[in-house]
C-alpha cells in the first residue's frame, strides 16, 4: 500500500486551486503512482573508512521538496539499503512521484530520528574503540535537484567528516588509543552545504583498524574537520606501556580525506633550571623506552633539595636516572639559608641588692630558602657565657649574691651561634645606706658650761656610724670653729679665758662621708667675774 502524500504548505495553483486544501492522491493514479528509490552513484559509495561500501541495513534520511512551491513532500523519511538500493523502511516513509516532476532531494547518512530541520542536521562523533562506533561516526550528504526521469534516483554522497589515522611502529603491546581534546559535534545545512562545528571538546577513543598482534598498530578515528595541534591534541596509548604522544606539528584535517597524524616518538625531557643554585645536564630528546640521566652540579652556599615534577619530589639524589616513557618536566631545587639571628633575654633583668636569681632565655633561627622562595625557619640552641663578681651562671640560671656595697653592679651575658650573638644584662641595685650622727639621747647640739675661766676639758657621748645593707661601720668626723676649743674624738679641751668677760665658743663636728653636723657650744666665765648661769 503506497503512502498518501500530503501537502504541508498550500500554494496558489492557477489551473485547479482557488485556496488552501489538503489533496490526497489515490494509490493507482496514472500520474503519481511510482515509488522513488535511491542508489549510491558509482565512485561515491564509501563510508567512514573512506574506502568501504554501504552494507545491508544502512539507513539514510531523505527530505523531498518541490522547489517551485517550497512544499515538503518528505521530512526525514527513512530509507534502508538492501544491498542494491535504498528503499523505504516503512510504508509511511514512501515517496511517490510522477516522472518529469521537479523535486529536490536532500539526503544524509546515517539516519537519525528527530531530525526535522534540514538546515541543522546534528551529528556527534562518539567513542570509536569498537568497529560499530567507528562506522556510526561517519556522516555523508547527497543532493539531487534534477527532474525525476527515472524512479531510481542516483545519489552522489560526499563525506563531511575527516578520518585521522595513527600508525605505531613496533607498538610493544599497544591495545588502545585515544585522541584527546577534539571537537566532536557538528550541524549540517543540507540546503547550502554549510557546516557548523561546536567548540566544545572531548576525548575520542580510536578504532583498532589493524589486527591485534600486528607489529604496526593502526588506529583510526572519524571526527569533524578541524585543526589538530601538537600542543593540545595528544594521543594517549595504553597497553604494556602507557604513554601520551603528540604530533610533530599542527595538522589541518579536511572532510573526506584520511590523514596520517604523524607522532613524535621521541620524548622531551625539560629541566627548569635555577641558575643561582647550580647547573644541570640531561635535558633533550630521547627515544621512548630509553634511559635518561639528569644531573645537578650544586654551587657553593647551596645544598641539593631533590628533583621535583608537578610539585612532588621524584628523587633526592643529584644524579637521577629513569626510563623515558613520556615528556617530562623536571625541576632541580636548591636550598640555602639566611644568616642566623640570636636573641637573649633575662627575667628578671634586675635583682634585689639582697641577691636572687634571673633566668636567661636564648634562641636562634634562620630562614630556609628553596630556589629563592622562603620555605621554613630553622632553629638551634645557642651557647651562653658570662659572669662577674657576685654573678654566677649555671645553664640558663644566673645566681646573684648579696650586694654589700653602696654601688649598683651588673653583668653582661652573651649568647652566640653561627657567628651571630646577642647580649642581655642582669643588674643589681646598691645596698641601702643610712648614716647615724648624734649626741646622747639623739640630740644634734650640746652646750658645756665650765665653772671658771681656767682651762679644762670634758668628754662627749657621740654616736657616729654608717649602715650599708646589713653591715655597720663607725665613721669619724672633723671639726671647725673657735680655735680655743679643741676636739679630739670624744674628748674636748678648752683653753683658759684670759679675759674678764665671759666668752662663748662654737665648734661644728662634721661626719665623714655623709656631711652630717653636730653643734658644740662652750660658755666659759671670765677671770674676775662670778659665773652666773643665765
Keywords:
534 residues; mainly beta; Immunoglobulin-like; ten-stranded mixed beta sheet; six-stranded antiparallel beta sheet; 1 helix; rod-shaped
Descriptive overview:
With 534 residues, the protein is mainly β. It folds into 4 domains: 227 residues, Sandwich (Immunoglobulin-like), CATH 2.60.40.2620; 71 residues; 88 residues, Immunoglobulin-like (Sandwich); 92 residues, Sandwich (Immunoglobulin-like). The chain is built from 1 helix and 50 strands. The strands form 13 sheets. Strands 24, 26, 28, 29, 31, 32, 34, 35, 37 and 38 form a 10-stranded mixed sheet that branches. A hairpin with a 4-residue loop joins strand 3 and strand 4.
Largest sheet, described in full? 10 strands, mixed
Question: What level of helicity do the residues show?
Answer: under 10%
Q: What percentage of amino acids are in beta strands?
A: over 45%
In the CATH scheme, the class of the largest domain would be: Mainly Beta
- What's the count of strands? 50
Mean pLDDT level: 88
Which structural class matches the secondary elements?
mainly beta
CATH fold title of the largest domain: Immunoglobulin-like
Number of helices: 1
Separation of the first and last Cα atoms: 172 Å
Low-confidence spans: 1-31
C-alpha-based Rg, rounded = 59 Å
Silhouette: rod-shaped
Going by CATH, the architecture of the largest domain would be: Sandwich
Overall number of domains = 4
